[in-house]
Write a structure and sequence with these properties.
heterodimer, A: about 290 residues, alpha/beta, four-stranded antiparallel beta sheet, B: about 250 residues, mainly alpha, two-stranded antiparallel ribbon, 9 helices, about 5% strand, flat
Chain lengths: ~290, ~250
């Protein structure tokens, strides 16, 4: 990796009750990338997120932002948190104000911006997540998915370079998932580094550039997407299962229906396209033989 | 319910400062006035203003307005009636004391007026706007932070209580008095844990958004607030002057 914006170097953290958070965890997040952090429950994904935003401080090892160790002074933390935004899993644990517009303004005001700039950022962030019409609604009258979008708007309004989302799709219905996917696509196209902790391998396979797999507080594996179809047994060993598309692709290659030279499809739509292309080719060959 | 009307009233977009000013003047006027008819008239005027002016449905308004009247009636009765215990061959006796009636009339009128004034503000102004008004009035940040988080948490915990009691009821947790008591106990225990966990989570959420001090939020913008303030000041002054004049001329 050439240009990491964030790096964890041998980070160890245990909670006060003795439970393990991270154990000599080392990984990098490349600037402008889409990174998926995968792992089972209790693997250390949330602890990792809290380190990236400076909420937790490593007991040993260090977190580096832009190649420099994080400064844990008040000023240093403010700077880190203005660059790395964190969206929590449970929106009710993140939303502080009962008013949508007020809550979104909370982060930018903490950055010391003037009211005019804050107002501008709030309106743009609400528009980016499609919530402009609900800006004056009380938070407690919103649906779960809408609350999640308010959380995201609250972080977007701070204009961070990196956005870390902890389980963003949990408890969302399908249309809400599609909306969130579209927002994530837009963020990536704007050059924002997006890091998502999730369990959904199919989504992670289609969306991400790189997977970091965490197990027992450590980095167990790290794969670029081209490497994933060749490492399915290792994924199974780590208890993650396999992306359905990658598994089907492997089966089709093994059955001789797809050529091993075919680039591995990343999504269901991609796979269907490859199958149709292969069928077309097969039909053409048959016609030629006749 | 009251929350719902505060968000949907016609006066939602009027500056909370203007509504606060009118409420304050109405309260001062009610405290200054000693004429029961004036006090009742002021109360009726404020009710009309809230119901027809701000568009709060009368039935909903009465649902909030009537319960305190029960306390008021009990309080008035305690003053107007005198009580005599048994002794010297007499049994218990309850007497109406005519000398106390003017006092009761003023008390009832004043209470009605104050209640109507406070409901005018409460039913037309969401709590977030009230907190923002208090911030402008330089109320200490610690109190406002507590109000903000407390108000937000109220709804989170109401939802949690609903979820937990539903889950308990689904497993016959409230089938008998004994199981209901046990379920209630465990509900309190679980909620206590949740309060603690949520407070930690909210602290982390505030830190994650670069907060290291009091909680600040953007204030709402209100259309033509000068006009609202002038209207509130004129109405408020009218109320206070009328009350003062009536008191000076001894009516």
């Amino acid at each position: 990796m050439t240009n990491p914006i964030l790096r964890l170097q041998d980070v160890t953290f245990n909670y006060p009750d003795g439970s393990r958070g991270l154990k000599r965890c080392t990984l990098e997040v490349e600037r402008g990338s889409r990174t998926a952090i995968l792992g089972g429950n209790g693997a250390g994904k949330t602890t990792l997120c809290l380190h990236l935003n400076g909420i937790l401080r490593p007991q040993s090892g260090q977190v580096l932002c832009d190649g420099r160790p994080v400064d844990y002074s008040r000023r240093g933390l403010k700077q880190l948190r203005s660059r790395v935004g964190l969206v929590f899993q449970n929106p009710d644990a993140q939303l502080l104000s009962a008013s949508v517009r007020e809550d979104v303004s909370f982060g930018p005001l903490n950055l010391g911006l003037d009211k005019h700039s804050v107002r501008d950022r709030v309106e743009k962030a609400l528009a980016a997540v499609g919530l402009s019409e609900l800006a004056d609604k009380p938070v407690h009258n919103l649906s779960f998915g809408q609350k999640k979008r308010v959380c995201l708007a609250g972080v977007l309004a701070m204009r961070p370079e990196v956005i870390v989302l902890d389980e963003p799709f949990s408890s969302l219905d399908l249309p809400m998932r599609w909306d969130l996917r579209a927002i994530l696509e837009r963020l990536s196209s704007e050059g924002i580094t997006v890091l998502i902790c999730c369990h959904d391998l199919d989504f992670a396979y289609e969306w991400a550039d790189r997977w970091h797999i965490i197990a027992a507080g450590q980095l167990a594996a790290s794969y670029g997407m081209a490497e994933v179809p060749h490492n399915l047994p290792r994924l199974a060993e780590l208890g993650l299962g396999a992306p359905a598309v990658a598994e089907l692709y492997q089966e089709l290659v093994a059955a001789g229906f797809l050529s091993p030279a075919t680039p591995p499809p990343r999504s269901h739509a991609d796979l269907l396209l490859r199958i149709r292309q292969a069928k077309e080719l097969l039909n053409q060959n048959r016609r030629f033989r006749l | 319910m009251h929350e719902h009307w505060a968000y949907n009233s016609r006066w939602r977009r009027i500056h909370p400062g203007a509504k606060g000013l009118l409420t304050f003047c109405a309260l001062v006027s009610a405290l200054v006035a000693t004429n029961p008819w004036y006090l009742v008239t002021e109360a009726v005027a404020l009710v009309i203003l809230t119901v027809w002016g701000a568009g709060i449905p009368l039935a909903q308004y009465l649902r909030v307005f009537l319960p305190p009247l029960g306390f008021l009636a009990a309080g008035g009765a305690m003053i107007a009636l005198s009580w005599q215990g048994p002794g010297s061959g007499q049994h218990f006796a309850l007497h109406l004391d005519p000398s106390q009636l003017p006092r009761v009339a003023i008390l009832v009128g004043r209470s009605l007026s104050c209640l109507a004034a406070l409901l005018l503000l409460a039913l037309t102004t969401p709590m977030t706007d009230l907190i923002s008004l208090l911030r402008r009035l330089k109320v200490p940040a610690e109190i406002l932070d507590l109000m903000t988080v407390g108000y937000r948490s109220l709804f989170v915990f109401l939802e949690a209580i609903h979820d937990i009691t539903t889950a308990q009821a689904a497993r016959l947790g409230y089938a008998t008095t004994r199981t209901a008591m046990r379920s209630l106990g465990s509900l309190v225990a679980v909620l206590a844990m949740q309060v603690w966990q949520r407070s930690l989570a909210l602290d982390q959420a505030a830190l994650a958004r670069a907060n290291d001090g009091p909680l600040f939020f953007l204030e709402n913008e209100y259309g033509d607030s000068r006009r609202s303030f002038v209207a509130a000041a004129v109405a408020g002054l009218l109320l206070m002057i009328s009350a003062a004049v009536l008191r000076l001329i001894g009516r």
